Amino acid sequence: MRIPVAGFTLEGQAHLVDGAPAAIVCHPHPAFGGRMDNPLVVALAEACHAAGFSTVRFNFRGLDGSEGTPTGGRAEHEDVAAVIAWMRAQGAARIALVGYSFGALMAARAVADGADVTAFAAVGFPTTLLGEDPDRVGHLEAALDRRVPWLFIGGDADQFCEIDRLDAWVAGRPWAKSEVLSGRGHFLSGSDAVEVCERVARFTWSATCAH
To answer: Is the pTM of this model over 0.70?
Structure first.
C-alpha cells in the first residue's frame, strides 16, 4: 500500500478493521538498519492488532519502497503526520502512536506539532539522540505537555535510553508514566519482546478506549 506525503509516497503495511481505533507503529533508526520489517516493530503491530486495533507500519522516506529522501530525523515527523492523515481517511476516529527508538522520537515530534492522537507508547526512547539540544528537548516537552496518555518503556541497561531523564520528564505529569525493564538493553527479543508488546498493547488499548 502507498501513503501520500507532500510530493511522494511511503511504503506501508496495514491491517484494517472496520470501525476500530488505529495504532501506527514507527520503526527505529534507518542508519542502523531500522525498517518497518524490524522484528519488534512487526511484533508490536501484531500485538496491537490482536488487541483490537487497525494497524499500520511503514518505511520512513527514502527507505526501501518509500519515495523521497531521508533527512536523518529533520523531517521524518512529517511522515508520521501523513500516516495519521491516511488512517483518518480510512475511517479511524481514534489513533494511537507506538514508536521504537528513532520511531518514538519522530512520533513525539509529530505530537509536538499538533498531531491529534489518543495515546503514545515509546519503546527504548533514544534520549541520547536529543542530548542537551534545546530545540529537540523542547519538542519532546511540548509533546508531553499535550497531555496525551503516554508510556515510556525501556531497559535500565539501554545505552541509548537514560531512565533518569524519562523519570524527570514524567514527574509532575500524571498522564505520563515510565516503566523500567530490569537488566534489559535497547534490542529486545524473545520473552523480553513479548513482554514489551503485551504492555504496549494493554496500555494503548486502555488509553484509547477510555479517551
So the answer is: yes
